[in-house]
Amino acid sequence: MSFAKAFQKVFKEQGQNIEVPEIIETDPQLVPHMYRAQVKPRCSLQFAGDGIHRNKWIEQLVNPREDGQPTYQYAEVQDVLEKGYFCRFKVQFPYRLFSNCGQDSIFRPMLGKNGVPFIPGSGVKGVFLRYCNNNKSDRALAIRYCGDKEPLTQGILRFHGAYPVGDWAGTISRKDETTYYRLVDVVHPQENRQIGIDEKSTSALALISFYQPKLVFEISSVELLSQEEWKNISGKLKSALRQGLGGKTSTGYGLPFITKDQYNINLSLHGVGITPVLLAGEREFRPPEFRPNIFKATLRSHAKRLLGGCCQNQQDDKRVESKIGELFGNTQAPGKVEIYWELRNPSPQTDWQSTYDIRGNLHISTPDTDVEFLKCLIKFAYTMGGFGKSWRRVWHKDFYHQNPRYEKLIGCHWECHDSGWKHEISEWINDIKTPQQLGEFLNNLENVCKNYFQVREPQFLTWREAWHKKRVAVYSKIVSQSQVIELFHNEIYKQTHAIGGRKTISKNGKEEEVLVISSVWHRMLPIGNNQYLEIITVFHGDRNKWEHLERGNQLQPFIKSLKMKGLQLAWGQEPQEN
Fold it and tell me: Which residue has the higher pLDDT, 280 or 100?
């Protein structure tokens, strides 16, 4: 039945005889993107490359009247903690907050009137109830406030959810009067490609998250409550929020405040490097943002490398995946490891600054049974490379001295200092000063992985970067400045895939150049007194990566170049000539 006939039938049932035209002329471009089907011809939001529809969707969300007066900026409201039936208070979140409505292909929060996002009351109640049930002294209060199933009991509280006030969209106004919104977030899983499990590139997925929001929480009661009891209720909800609100809490989303007691591993870090860009605006105008989830991404991928080289047999890859999911989470369940980055120098930066120079405290929580492995994992990540974009290379701005000055942004550099906390100092991560100590650490790491994964004689999977001494060679030397950085710019070596050249692929009938993941890591580990332990990690399991189109395989020439610079084997097995 057509829509016209359906309308006519309804009108006749109501005693009205109204003719409805069979064809109703409607300009599809007048339909807001928010109400269009999530398919490419109409409105494609999910994939990072589809920016036109997404930018329009965002503009209509935050400025639906197109009059320059966004409707999402609710005015400030006053807290209410007086004796009565109602309670209201505000909480400031220092990073992002993510909550998914699950209604279409883009990850976004529930939307209320005028498209203003909110956190449903059921979500807030769930956080509050979980906290009360986890504390024996509060279980009776949980029944009083939230009710119970057996016997069926109705709680006295009504959770009205939470909504943002102020600028939750992260508005950026440039000097040229263009406006962008940092609420567009991104998820881009790359670990399988980075490790060499699957060489195919993955699609970056867009999601919408509140940007440093201030949320208003509102609760009402069917009973008259005293001011003291309302303070107790709001205090318990704020304590419950320490575990996080919404999704992606294991990487710091939805955490308004923390206590050091929540975390059993704490480090003070200083890092410089390249800031990844957001998806807001056109490609050439996208603002950068230092993303704390890089820590979890780095640790997760390194854990997979280490366990991939510590297996019982070639069919052990599913066991590796299961252990990684157990630690860091997957689509079925959250992981054991919780990470929070506490920025210590939130000084204003230019909106389009392409590099970061930050100091902060990295807090990590994990069960006691996993602490030894996690500490070794963190130390491995810090010692061998660092964190974030381009972590396989040293920070060229500091370590590549050329005349004229080399301007291209490559690499990163991280240092770890005393955290200042009595119960946690950084000596355990800073005790590698010599090639011998590096070798001792990597030997101990191998034993820790064997014990953790319960393997006696470890075998390696066929992944390019599975960590096993038969496939990896680590060279090092104490230096005051880099001895080998020029090798990465050698016209012969840099044309091999192992060092990081490019390859040509056919895509949609066209030839396209793509980057190739390097099989060599380069780190300048600070050891004090303006000296460094220069570390080169060479993966040689896949010799094809070292082929040069005209000069043949360059693995042995590269190893010889390292030795000529004075670097010696610290761990692993040196590749033999074919």
Answer: 100
